[in-house]
From TrEMBL:
It holds the Pfam family PPR_2. The keyword Repeat applies. It comes from Pisum sativum. It comes from the Eukaryota. This is Pentatricopeptide repeat-containing protein. Keywords: Repeat.
């Protein structure tokens, strides 16, 4: 560019920073950011956000914090997408207290979108930090921003932490909060965070046939395919109530031969478990 007497501007450097970020060359990214400053060009919001996100996903805590300090001095706002990435950076760096302080800064500002709460709950949940995930969930509840997505990731977090009873209780409370999980499933708006399979899995692992069996029936009625995890959970539930491994092997074989008849066989076996459970509780 210099040969044709054309000087690069801030946008030129932003493009170079973005290109090297995509190619995972963080050293070149940092180099071009410094060269931009050396050329007396003012990095803009795009420059800072791109670099900050690149540092955060690589757990470069010191570099990220130095950049945050610069942005604060210049009055540049950190977007919520980058905020979530920074929370995750602190979590993965083992700096839980710092991650909560960072989250709290944005929460107190009062303009966080529900997607940001979801991302933060999920970040804690994925790493097994249930107490912190619960804390963010409660803060979200304070803001009256609870949607099905917050419930999804919190239930997912409980599942990862093997807190099956808590997961089931939270799922049961969704109606009370005016959030319907089933309608979202039918509309196809749920991803792997929460589905009938996950709910069935949670109830089965918690040893709650009264809830697991109606969920299973709903799945059959809605023609939702069971995954291997759900079948394994149902198998464990039946084992807990005295079913033999040989009988369960036959159930699985029947599913492979004829799905429709196989589902009916599972339904019959599960119904007998429910009757047994009700009899034992009398």
């Amino acid at each position: 560019m210099e040969e044709v007497r054309c000087s690069p501007n801030t946008r030129t450097y932003n493009i170079l920073i973005s290109l090297h970020t995509k190619h995972n060359d963080i050293d070149m990214v940092t180099k071009y950011f410094k060269r931009m400053k050396a050329a007396h060009l003012e990095p803009d919001l795009v420059s800072y956000r791109t670099l900050l996100y690149a540092y955060s996903i690589r757990k470069m805590v010191c570099e990220a914090e130095e950049l945050i300090s610069e942005m604060d001095k210049k009055g540049l706002q950190i977007d919520q997408f980058t905020q979530s990435a920074l929370t995750r950076m602190y979590i993965e760096a083992g700096m839980l207290e710092r991650s909560l302080l960072w989250f709290h800064r944005f929460h107190l500002a009062g303009n966080m979108k529900f997607e940001c709460y979801v991302a933060n709950i999920d970040a804690y949940g994925e790493h097994g930090h249930i107490l912190e995930a619960e804390e963010v969930f409660l803060w979200c509840q304070e803001r009256k921003k609870l949607s099905v997505l917050e419930f999804n990731v919190m239930i997912k977090a409980y599942g990862i932490g093997k807190c099956y009873d808590k997961a089931c209780q939270l799922f049961d409370s969704m109606d009370k909060h005016g959030v319907a999980a089933d309608s979202f499933v039918k509309l196809g708006l749920l991803t792997d965070s929460l589905s009938y399979n996950n709910v069935l899995d949670l109830y089965a692992n918690a040893g709650r046939p009264k809830e697991a069996i109606p969920t299973f029936k709903d799945m059959v009625t809605a023609s939702i395919q069971l995954d291997d995890c759900s079948l394994r959970s149902l198998r464990n539930l039946l084992l807990r109530y005295g079913a033999s491994r040989q009988a369960l092997d036959k159930l699985q074989v029947s599913m492979k031969k004829d799905t429709s008849n196989g589902l009916q066989a599972w339904m019959l076996a599960l119904t007998s478990v429910l009757e047994m459970d009700e009899y034992d509780n009398k």
